[in-house]
């Protein structure tokens, strides 16, 4: 195989999502079964030893596509020549921590990482932020990388998108592959709006496929999807890891390889003002992708019911942006 390897940087590589992610990247699921990869693992000093252990396991898998592994606690080295960056490592909220403290701590991670991407990444860099609060962390990184086109910074709402598809499949009995055009709007948080009004289930409008059941939509579907992260933490005693890693793989694969005809996906992307979302915010939208680029789907009819929910989530994003602005992080 003569293709040039793609440099993929993963931050928080020794964490639980990192462990679920690295083996799938190395086996070709992120970019394609014919694309060799170099892995660049960024950790804090306390995480380096565990990252080394994972690297030993990666070598032991003898993946044909895996060319090289670098392990470092230096962002400049980790992002040097990076073509794809998955920003997973973040400061979790701990007991007694105020919201401002959390944003400040994450600013201390995503600001310098944005700058390192700005100064060292390859010209075609694509960034996915997974670490929470994902949309605002992505905004911090993006604003600290003024030389990188803003649209290269994205936040992960694909897990929410996949959760919505999973719930629709469970309700209707339809195959996941027969569910199209679900949308997650807004923030990756409990205010997000999973929208089925544009979606199709086995060729029928999704709302019709769920029996026009407004009570189910409002009291079951929307809260189940929006609060799924918390439900998993409650059940597992730790936040979602394999499903989050899977969504990160899906996000990048779709961004690079394109959405199917007649379908779209959900990504947190820099708003261009579409659907009344203030320009510059990183908010989730329905997007189509082609040739490594995405476009926000235009012209969708938004009902009053949907409008109120989109506005509520966008208001939260605006507040987060204002808070990091006040802290001088952007
Ligand atoms: N967007 C989503 O859908 C979604 C879903 C699930 C989890 N998450 C978030 O993903 C993040 C990671 O989750 P996890 O379960 O893997 O956590 P984890 O605690 O298991 O792992 C995080 C890793 O990041 C490392 N880290 C911390 N600061 C770092 C830095 N500055 N540079 C490099 N590495 C650093 C830690 O050492 C640790 O190994 C969390 O913020 C979590 O809330 C997001
Ligand atoms: O880590 C969390 O708070 C939850 C996570 O974002 C999830 O959606 O599973």
UniProtKB/TrEMBL annotation:
HAMAP family: Malate_dehydrog_2 (MF_01517)
EC identifiers of the protein: 1.1.1.37
Stored InterPro entries: L-lactate/malate_DH, Lactate/malate_DH_C, Lactate/malate_DH_N, Lactate_DH/Glyco_Ohase_4_C, Malate_DH_AS, Malate_DH_type2, NAD(P)-bd_dom_sf
Role description: Catalyzes the reversible oxidation of malate to oxaloacetate.
Reactions it catalyzes: (S)-malate + NAD(+) = oxaloacetate + NADH + H(+)
Domain of life: Bacteria
Gene Ontology MF terms: L-malate dehydrogenase (NAD+) activity
Name of protein: Malate dehydrogenase
GO biological process: malate metabolic process; tricarboxylic acid cycle
Segments forming a coiled coil: none
Residues noted as binding NAD(+) in the record, renumbered to the chain: 12-18, 106, 113, 130-132
The species this protein was found in: Kitasatospora aureofaciens (Streptomyces aureofaciens)
Positions that bind substrate: 93, 99, 132, 163
Gene: mdh
PROSITE patterns referenced in this protein's UniProt entry, alphabetically: MDH
Keywords from the named record: NAD, Oxidoreductase, Tricarboxylic acid cycle
Domain Lactate/malate dehydrogenase C-terminal stretches: 157-325
Location of the Lactate/malate dehydrogenase N-terminal domain: 7-147
Signal peptide: none
Pfam families given in the database record: Ldh_1_C, Ldh_1_N
Sequence similarity: Belongs to the LDH/MDH superfamily. MDH type 2 family.
Active site: 188 (proton acceptor)
Entries under CDD domains matching the protein: MDH_chloroplast-like (cd01338)
